[in-house]
Amino acid sequence: MTSIDSDTSQVIAEAISERGGRYLEAPITGSLSAAEEGTLLIICAGDLELFKSCETCFFSTAKNTLHMNCDVGSASKMNLIHSMLMSTSNAVLAEQMVVLERNNIPKSKLLDVIQLDSISCPLFSESGRAIVDQNFSTNTSLKYQQQNLHMALALSSSYAQPLRMASASNELYKATKSLGYSEHDMSAVYFGARH
């Protein structure tokens, strides 16, 4: 129930299957606030009957579950791709906040615009509010997001698929980590964008 690469998940599944067990990968997506609000998502792949047996337990932790398919590795890949979307979107938001700041426009006004537009979502609301309030207490750790970006880039490398936006975002997260913000919220990528 954590982020691992699909190869590792497959190795674990094989080891369990060889000993007569059943395996279900089930990474959890969401932030600390999502956990507190009970709105986490668990993405699963593997044994369907095991998924059905575990589903009630999953609902004690998460609001939603999704069984991708029976192919172990699919949920790990989806989790990394989902995390890549969040990380890259968050990096773009941070850069926009820096542009506003440099143009003497209150950063809070971007939150107003986002709230009134079709791109409104909890990610932009939470990260944007953290940047405006300069409160980077950890909701989703920057170190964790960069780790997932790194794994997603490795996944795409195996298919020779370029990920230009994610690669640039990964560099921004790494630069922010070098500034000492690893343990802060991922919205602290704002400091890397400012630097």
Automatic annotation (TrEMBL):
Domain 6-phosphogluconate dehydrogenase NADP-binding: 1-66
GO terms of molecular function: DNA binding; NAD binding; NADP binding; nucleosome binding
SUPFAM superfamilies the UniProt entry points to: 6-phosphogluconate dehydrogenase C-terminal domain-like, NAD(P)-binding Rossmann-fold domains
Residues of the 3-hydroxyisobutyrate dehydrogenase-like NAD-binding domain: 73-190
Superkingdom of this protein's organism: Eukaryota
Family under the similarity heading: Belongs to the HIBADH-related family. NP60 subfamily.
Name listed for the protein in its UniProt record: Putative oxidoreductase GLYR1 homolog
Gene coding for it: AAEL006684
